[in-house]
Write a structure and sequence with these properties.
The chain is of the alpha/beta class. It is built from 12 helices and 9 strands. The longest helix is centred in the C-terminal third of the chain and has 20 residues. The chain binds ligand G3I. Ligand G3I binds next to loops.
């Protein structure tokens, strides 16, 4: 059987190709991961909840294992994530005043930087702070209730103060939807005018085959890049189900898989055109079997197949479309 081409080799002159992984996956699918990908992101293990469950309790083991794997195989590592309304333990907010919360965020960042800055190429400083609906820029979160509209700028200021040479990313989803995009662009302006605090915008790229608008993707890349930031595609997957779909039926039809392959090919053709501003393209998972979309948003829904490799680590038709150009 002919050898499978390597994504990271194919894209060596373009950008890093990454995957979100877990320590378990590094054990079971390490060969695939180290040969196909040049960058890793911890799917959960570097988030405040898993790594810092109580004020004086840290659980470094899983994150350390991921950092060690990256070092051993010469892979880049992204730091995901420091400030997020989700997977942050309740104790961060206890007491409810600004100074206490900021001092906890600062102490958290300090430990993360001390331990992992030597391994990490880019940090998602703030994740998903922008509201999906309505006129407000910011999501109504515990962070926002306590820190107000300063939440993102203050977080980036703290990160810069603690790690002056760090490469800092604002990361969000629904990034190509015009209404939310306008708000994210305004947020990037805030970060720029507060002293060039942001280096890159993270397009999460959680898309599906039914309503992805490639013209909006291209327009979005241009609009974000025009803010003078680099772009990192941080969590790419292409679900076979529409986002509004909550029905139980099997979307893995031959037609849908063909459409997915066609779209993956077109998405990467666009990414290649913008290689000068795109640092990396990371898939949210290595194979379909490990995707967070199994079980989301509907439990027991037939198997989704959003990635380039099947559960047996075999390349799918969409893989071929991504490497053949
Ligand atoms: O680790 C516990 C386990 O001890 C417990 O028994 C089990 C019972 O539910 O839960 C386990 O934690 C789960 C964790 O994933 C690890 O598997 C959480 O319930 C579950 O909520 C968590 O989901 C993660 C999700 O973020 C949380 O919002 C997904 O794995 C992860 O893929 C997903 O990643 C996010 C990015 O960080 C940000 N952008 C969106 C993306 C997809 O939602």
């Amino acid at each position: 059987m002919p050898a499978i081409p390597s994504l990271k080799e194919r894209y060596r002159d373009y950008f890093d190709i990454g995957a979100a992984i877990t320590p378990q996956l590094l054990q079971t699918k390490g060969d695939l991961i180290k040969t196909q990908f040049s960058s890793l992101t911890a799917e959960n293990q570097m988030k405040p909840g898993p790594i810092h469950p109580a004020p004086d309790t840290w659980a470094f083991e899983d994150a350390d294992a991921i950092a060690a794997f990256a070092r051993e195989h010469n892979l880049h590592l992204r730091g995901h994530t420091l400030v997020w309304h989700n997977q942050t333990p309740e104790w961060f907010y206890e007491g409810g005043d600004k100074d206490t919360l900021l001092s906890r965020v600062k102490a958290h960042m300090q430990v993360m930087f001390d331990r992992y800055a030597k391994d990490i190429i880019a940090w998602d400083v703030v994740n998903e702070a922008v509201a999906d609906q309505g006129d407000e820029i910011f999501r109504d979160s515990r962070y926002h209730q306590i820190l107000g509209d300063n939440l993102v700028v203050r977080s980036f200021e703290l990160a810069r103060e603690l790690l002056p040479g760090g490469y800092f990313v604002y990361n969000d989803y629904n990034e190509i939807m015009p209404a939310k995009r306008t708000k994210i662009l305004a947020l990037l302006d805030m970060l720029k005018s507060a002293g060039n605090l942001v280096d890159a915008f993270g397009f999460q790229c959680h898309w599906n085959i039914h309503d992805l608008d490639l013209d909006e993707l291209r327009r979005s890349i241009e609009l974000y890049a025009a803010k003078g930031v680099h772009l990192q595609m941080t969590e790419l997957d292409l679900s076979l189900y529409a986002s509004s779909d909550k029905e139980i039926y099997d979307a893995a039809t031959p037609e849908n898989l063909a459409l997915q392959a066609d779209l993956y090919g077109k998405i990467f053709a666009i990414f290649r055109e913008y290689k000068d501003v795109i640092d990396s393209v990371t898939f949210w998972g290595a194979t379909d079997a490990d995707s967070w979309l199994q079980g989301f948003p509907v439990r027991n829904r037939p198997y989704n197949q959003p990635l380039l490799f099947d559960g047996e680590c075999q390349p799918k038709e969409c893989f071929r479309r991504v490497v053949e150009f």
